[in-house]
Write a structure and sequence with these properties.
alpha/beta, Rossmann fold, 2 domains, seven-stranded parallel sheet, 16 helices, about 15% strand
Length: about 425
């Protein structure tokens, strides 16, 4: 097998959506004759943890190298909690003011030291770095310069144009642009999760050729749903509630407020709904919205599950009747093709999507079982909930288009990444 070093600060047992893409690539690359070696950290502070996903990756034979102690203790970490999102944003803005490109810059030195050892001892053939954090790209570029290995950069989000990034002065933004320019010049290949990020790279950096950038979208792992299949909730029966579930955390531009308001209006229009619907929130859920739900008198209709490991989350999705997602309107909302959307595709369920124009909305166009509304159109959200409820009672829920959802199978997407690796190796052989 050829060997690839994957540079990824975020990796299991860290949880949440940022680790899924990299972990699943690592899991499936060996099917295409690429042995993955992962360079990451020994985490101590988590927003969430997922040891189940870590065990899944280890079972696939992925070799993991960690800076720091290298020893993981399932109870040896601290889960960081914020009472509200504004506190988290304040800390983020402060760190981005003083640390460039991000707060993970202190990882660069130990990562370079360990990576050099891994490359030398294992005869690595390829470098693959995924960001954010953008420090991963800086590490990869220094390793390429040192060892002359081909390099693929993976954009899970944009860099300069990311709406989560904070630039307190023009000087900060100029520094980021200089760093990104260097990374793009260094890379042999660039991969993005959607066409819009690719387009912005070409617009901002005209020296990057079209063929240098490929799109490999987010996806879902079919094995996550192979056991769950199309199960119904455990309360299956004629009188069971319709479960409408949301998977993910409410950070940055995500808020459940407009959905809660739409649900409130729906129960006012159809009182029986309150005792016949379960709005299920799976993921980190801020205290401020728990109080808001209570104020709206919706406790009976809401189930706040909280954060669970990925295998448990996919079971909830498979046992739901409708899946809800949202993306708030923002300056860069057109960039977001949130990972949960593709997990929803894998669950093969109808979707209520409250999203603005952009990449995510275009991905949903051919889904076949979706109701689209604006992010803050509470009347449209109300109508969508009532529409699904009537179909649910009649046993006539819409069915997604399998030919569309199948395009996002992570096993298949790992094969696309392996093809990019193979093409670069062949180019190197020709040069030699």
């Amino acid at each position: 097998m050829k060997k690839v070093l994957i540079i990824s600060y975020y990796f299991p047992p860290m949880g949440m959506g940022g680790v899924q893409r990299t972990a699943k690539f690592a899991k499936y690359l060996s099917l295409y004759d690429w042995q993955p070696y992962v360079l990451t950290v020994t985490p101590k502070l988590y927003l969430a943890s997922d040891y189940c996903l870590l065990h899944e990756v280890e079972k696939a034979g992925v070799k993991i190298y960690r800076t720091g102690s290298g020893e993981l203790e399932e109870n040896g970490h601290k889960v960081v909690k914020f009472k509200n999102d504004s506190n988290r944003k304040l800390l983020s803005n402060l760190s981005q003011t003083f640390l460039i490109p991000d707060s993970k810059i202190f990882w660069k030195s130990p990562a370079l030291e360990l990576a050099s050892k891994v490359i030398t001892e294992n005869n690595i053939d390829m470098l693959f770095a995924t960001a954010p954090p953008y420090t991963d790209f800086l590490i990869a570029c220094e390793l390429k310069e040192k060892f002359g290995l081909p390099l693929v950069l993976d954009y899970r989000d944009s860099w300069i144009d990311c709406p989560n990034n904070f630039y307190p002065t023009p000087l900060h933004k100029a520094k980021h642009k200089k760093l990104e320019t260097g990374a793009l010049e260094c890379a042999d290949k660039v991969v993005t999760i959607n066409d819009r990020i690719k387009e912005l790279i070409h617009l901002r950096y005209p020296f990057v050729s079209d063929e240098k950038v490929s799109v490999i979208p987010q996806g879902f792992d079919p094995e996550d749903f192979s056991v769950n299949g199309n199960e119904k909730p455990s309360s299956n029966g004629k009188n069971r509630k319709m479960r409408i579930s949301y998977s993910g955390s409410f950070l940055n531009y995500y808020t459940p407020k407009h959905f809660i308001d739409g649900l409130k209006l729906a129960t006012e229009k159809l009182p029986e709904l309150k005792s016949n619907i379960e709005a299920c929130f799976i993921g980190t859920f801020p205290e401020e919205y728990k109080e808001y739900i209570k104020q709206q008198g919706l406790n009976e209709a809401v189930n706040i599950v909280g954060y669970v490991e990925h295998s448990v989350c996919t079971k909830y999705l498979a046992e739901s009747d409708v899946l809800w997602m949202m993306i708030n309107k923002s300056e860069r909302s057109d960039l977001h093709s949130t990972g949960k959307l593709y997990e929803y595709f894998g669950a093969n369920k109808p979707i209520l999507a409250c999203v603005p124009e952009g990449v995510a909305r275009r991905s949903l166009d051919m889904h076949g079982a979706v109701i689209l509304t604006g992010p803050d159109d509470v009347n449209a959200i109300r109508d969508a909930i009532l529409n699904f409820y009537e179909k649910f009672k009649a046993g006539k829920m819409p069915v997604p288009n399998d030919s569309v959802t199948g395009m996002y199978n992570r096993k298949r997407l790992a094969g696309k990444l392996a093809n990019e690796f193979d093409a670069l190796v062949k180019m190197e052989e020709v040069k030699a």
